[in-house]
Amino acid sequence: MFELYSNLDLFMKIYWVIAIFSSVVFIVQAIMTFVGGGAGDLDVDSGVDVETGDMPFHLFSFRNLINFLLGFSWTGISLNNVIHNRILLNVVAVLVGFLFIFLFFLIIKQLMKLSENNSFNIEETIGKTADVYLTIPAERQGKGKVMVSVRGTVHELSAITDNGEKFETGNVVKITQIINNLVIVEKL
After folding, report:
1. Cβ contacts of residue 114 below 8 Å, gap of 6+?
2. pLDDT tens digits, one per residue of 3-61
3. Are β-strands 153-161 and 144-150 bridged in parallel, bridged antiparallel, or unpaired?
4. Using alpha carbons only, what angle is made at residue 132 by residues 172 and 163, rounded to the nearest 5 degrees?
């Protein structure tokens, strides 16, 4: 193995050292990402961020450096026998390195589209129907409870009414307003 390496010219030795180093680091990063070790958090604060929705894409980060080096080195190794001009080979390798960064950016952007914000916003309940869980006294004489479904999740909320009659457990009501995290309901 070392004999094969020693027979290579300087450019190929450099390409192989970079390829082995970046491949090992990439594999470790991939394992740490899937296991949850946070290897993707090794970003260098460059001041150059690209907004991708909820998450900024750090242009100069350790992960992008590894992606660039992977594309650069393996392109240099793969095309060494095809492109004999060293300058052209290096230019093509650099372009492929940047292509790797761009592809990583596209993959992250698509993955971020899959994320979902499941935080509950009480304002989303306005206009929805709810089931009375605990009796709601008439004319704001006290609080009761309602169960309402928002985006597939059932929430128990404190409720009051302006109606002249109370709502018993099991009645179906409509939420009309929100005041201080209390829902105001009316007859459906």
Report:
1. none
2. 787 888 888 999 999 999 999 999 998 898 788 765 444 444 444 444 444 445 566 78
3. antiparallel
4. 75
Chain centroid to CA 81: how far? 41
Residue 167 DSSP class = B
- The three-class DSSP label of residue 91 is helix
CB 184 within 8 A of CB 161: yes
Domains defined along the chain, listed by start: 2-114 (no CATH), 122-187 (2.40.50.140)
pTM above threshold 0.85: no
**Ranges of H-type helices in the chain:** 2-6, 10-35, 62-78, 86-114
Among 176, 184, 54, 185, which Cα is nearest to 126's?
Answer: 176
Q: Is residue 159 a contact partner of residue 137, using CB atoms and an 8 Å limit? A: no
Task: Dig out the tokens for 179 from the structure.
Answer: 């005041």
